[in-house]
Amino acid sequence: MRRGIAEVLHGPAAIVQAHFPTLVLGVEDAALPQVVETAERMAASGADMFLTGAEARGAMRLPSVAGRHPLVLIASYDAFVEQLARRRGFDPDTPPHLRKVTETT
Question: pTM of the entire structure?
């Protein structure tokens, strides 16, 4: 297991619980198999897993652009936020406690 993946499993993954929103960027490199394995493991623990650039059991694949460069994959974040909000019953176009129009005086 690559060091970066081990750090996720022994650190941030410890807070993952049922319905914990998790975004994973599946960059096409040597670590991708371990990234997919980690995503599947976290999804199996109940996380709401969203994944770009790869397929994993239990994960919702977000649309991404071919090439899978990390800067391109992060654009999937917008789709992630909208899907997560709707999945949890929120309307992302009308967030609570916020107004779309800022009034200044």
Answer: 0.63
